[in-house]
Amino acid sequence: MTIALPLLGEERPERADAAENRRKVLAAAEELFTSCDPATVSMDAVAAKAGVGKGTLFRRFGDRASLARAVLSEHEIELQDALLRGEPPLGPGAPPLERLIAFGEAYVAFLERHGALLRSAEGSHGAFLSSAPYAFYRTHIAVLLREAGLGDSSEYLSDVILGPLGSTSFRYQRALRRRSCRDLVAAHADLCIRLLSSTR
Fold first, then answer.
1. Between 111 and which of 5, 23, 54, 170 could a Cys-Cys bridge form, CB atoms 3.0 to 4.6 Å apart?
2. Quick one: the chain helix, strand, coil %, rounded to 5?
3. CA distance 42 to 47
4. Is residue 27 a part of any domain in this protein?
C-alpha cells in the first residue's frame, strides 16, 4: 500500500471536526468583534460563544491578535484578489496613478469597516509592518511606482504611500482630526499625484 506524504509547505488536511470547530470559532469571533470593541473581547468569551473548550481555542489560535488576524484574512483575500484580478482601475488595465488612487479609496473603505479589528490583529507596535498583508500591499505599490518611472525610489515611496493608511493613523484622522473618509481618500489621492508629478 502506498502512503502519500504531504508536500513540503503543504498544509495537512483538516479533520472534519477540527474544520467545524474552526468555522464555529471564526464565526463567533467575528460576531463578537463586530458587536463591540475587539480589544475588550476575551478568548474565554469567544470559546463560550463558539461552544469549544478554551484549550482548543488557544491551541489553534494562540492569542487574540492571531484570532483577529484569522478573522480578517478572508476580507483581506477579497481585497488582494481585486488588486490582482479585479476590474480596473483597482485591478490591472489602468495607468499606475489611477490604480494607486483606487487602492487608496479601497483601503480607506477597508479601514472604516475593519480598522478596530486590524488594530487588535496588529498586536505589538509595528507588527503589521512585518506582516504578510503589508508585504503584499507594499510590493503591489512598488510595482506600480516602477511602472510610473520612479525607479529605485519605488521601494521607499511605497512605504510613504502606505503610511497614512496604517490603522493607528487612520483612527487618529477619523477620531481626533474629524476627517471624513471622503476627505482622506482625496488627501491620499493628492499625495499620490504629487509623488508621481516628478515623472511627467
1. 170
2. 75, 0, 25
3. 9
4. yes
Task: Please tell me the pTM assigned to this model.
Answer: 0.82
pLDDT number for residue 8: 43
Could you tell me the three cell numbers for 141?
505599490
- Grid cell for residue 70: 484569522
Please name which of 118, 113, 114 lies closest in space to residue 129, comparing C-alpha atoms.
118
Cell of 162: 502606505
Peptide bond before residue 89 is cis, with ω within 30 degrees of 0: yes
Summarised one tens digit per residue, pLDDT across range 25-60 is 999 999 999 888 888 899 999 999 999 999 889 988
Neighbouring C-beta atoms of residue 94, cutoff 10 Å: 16
Count how many domains the chain has: 2
Residue 1 lies in a domain: no
Q: Which residues of the chain fall below pLDDT 50?
A: 1-11
Q: Tell me, yes or no, whether 4 lies in a domain.
A: no
Tally of CA atoms within 13 A in the half-sphere of 64 that contains its CB? 19
